[in-house]
Amino acid sequence: MMRIAIDAMGGDCGPRAVIAGALAAARDLSIGLTLVGRRAEIRAEVERSRAKPRVDVVIVDADDVIGMGEQPSAALRRKPGASIRIAAEVVRRGDAAALFSAGSTGATVIASCGAFGMLKGVGRPALAATVPTMRGTAVLLDAGANAACRPRHLVQFAVMGSVYARVATGIDHPRIGLLSTGAEETKGNTLTREAHGLLKGASVNFIGNVEAHDVYSGVADVIVCDGFTGNVALKISEGIAEMMVGMLGDAFAPPPRAAGLQAARRAFRRVRRKIDYSEYGGAPLLGVAGLVVVGHGRSSAGAVRSAVTMAHRFVRHDMVRRIGREIVAQGAGRA
Amino acid sequence: MMRIAIDAMGGDCGPRAVIAGALAAARDLSIGLTLVGRRAEIRAEVERSRAKPRVDVVIVDADDVIGMGEQPSAALRRKPGASIRIAAEVVRRGDAAALFSAGSTGATVIASCGAFGMLKGVGRPALAATVPTMRGTAVLLDAGANAACRPRHLVQFAVMGSVYARVATGIDHPRIGLLSTGAEETKGNTLTREAHGLLKGASVNFIGNVEAHDVYSGVADVIVCDGFTGNVALKISEGIAEMMVGMLGDAFAPPPRAAGLQAARRAFRRVRRKIDYSEYGGAPLLGVAGLVVVGHGRSSAGAVRSAVTMAHRFVRHDMVRRIGREIVAQGAGRA
Predict the structure, then answer these.
(1) Cβ–Cβ gap B242/A213 under 8 Å
(2) Of A162, B29, B40, B106, which alpha carbon lies 20 to 30 A from A272's?
(3) HEC readout, chain A
(4) What is the pTM of this model?
């Protein structure tokens, strides 16, 4: 039976949403869970859940939690018993097939790199966020695992993103775009100009630069960028979606048209939720030699359930090994 | 009489919208215009306009135009008679008080730096875009004049943005935020971490890092970032706003509620237009020793009219000199 390790303490909302969502997924998928964190709190949440009787749950003690505001590497040094580190160790030992955390992304990245190491030929891990587009979805990476990238890392992201898009969406030859400030090769910054040259020579279906306003138009299946840019791009999208939903009320008055307003509000909340990658079940951390799915800090139980389901599917598709093989085969390595 | 020089050939829509908008503004403000470009085309557009009889128009010949897709510095070298260069020369000679262009932003930046030089103590110019927020508006700079910035340039942007926000919005002590991937000083990339340290010591009302989803919530009056990040942030905002408006139709059916749908569509088009900085009259290019306002390539006649009105106001407020004095006074220089 497959087993997934859950950092039960991570997330802004505490263990309740995480445990409820993970139990719901485990019941559906007939898999086991290893819940890592403070035993008493975890046990109380498991007792509350009606899913428990049918789910094989193991609790592993971890007394510390890394807060969202803490500096991740310093906090991990200071807290050897942090739930994210212990949960990663559970996976490293082979006691679980995948790791899920809705806690500090930075801490999850560092703990995962430490426990699993990188795939051969990969220099930086990347968080692969799924974004909605006018034609379906696209994958944007790096969504924030690393602020500093070199051109060759963007090529590795393109190769990893290609494999991921094939596994996650079934597209045969995903179109790879490089996020930049203009369609021309010469546009952008030093990073994108150098990466553009390398991507033209790589064995991926590179379609060239993609300007930011085209991320959502669906011209590319996979969009690569450094983690600082990716984080800004996704978070500003959330921000403007929230503002647009907020402005809707003002725009309808006078005269108020209640039915239309309610319908429009619902519609836009739906779009806003879509932008929040937790709705797609979280974002896998690609490039590490273990399967890791990162949830949004504000993950609801439903989002956690999708994320655990996603982790289960990636284990079954042997995604980590496929990415590792592709990186070596394409010689995208030399990290 | 004040006179503003217009790159009449710039913009995706050709001279028609630019000339109509500039003439409308000039008539309202009782200022003169110097229209730079192909004389026959300009004359034809001026004849079409009913504003002409009351506006003092001078036409200056320029046979070349720099296209939106051309590499700006190469194109400027190849085309010494480009309208943007000739228009900048008109201002440099003192024959006009300000320059407006809706053409290639890159070419406008390079031509302006070449004609006017930089203000003493400023290392990089910055495009200052106005964005809507839940509480009003904010200024984001650099919106795309320069992809590569050093930490001290972000400090200069903060000083210039402060003066600009005071002139443009009347705020006494504008709150300055640094766009980054987390509120903590340690978050972000090398550029933002170093800039954060410098900004804490600068004589501006620095409120710390601002995450991207807070740009639109109005926590800061001025948000500084490098031009690559600023361009991505603004353009992805446009992209998601367009997608949200597009998705609205689907969300209302079935059953269609025509009145609500139309109202919601209008509301969201309004928001989308707000995001487009042309609606605020364009973005001034701060840091050069001359007054330059850049319009969006897709500027309508209405947007050009606002932009020329903006340029007129900044000339009257002596904005360039005030920025120059502030940079020197605050010792933010050492470019």
Answers:
(1) yes
(2) A162
(3) CCEEEEECCCCCCCHHHHHHHHHHHHHHHCCEEEEEECHHHHHHHHHHCCCHHHCCEEEEECCECCCCCCCHHHHHHHCCCEHHHHHHHHHHCCCCCEEEECCCHHHHHHHHHHHHCECCCCCCCEECEEEEECCEEEEEECCCCCCCCCHHHHHHHHHHHHHHHHHHHCCCCCCEEEEECCCCCCCCCHHHHHHHHHHHCCCCCEEEEEEHHHHHHCCCCEEECCHHHHHHHHHHHHHHHHHHHHHHHHHHCCCCCHHHHHHHHHHHHHHHHHHCHHHHCCEEEECECCCEEECCCCCCHHHHHHHHHHHHHHHHCCHHHHHHHHHHHCCCCCC
(4) 0.91
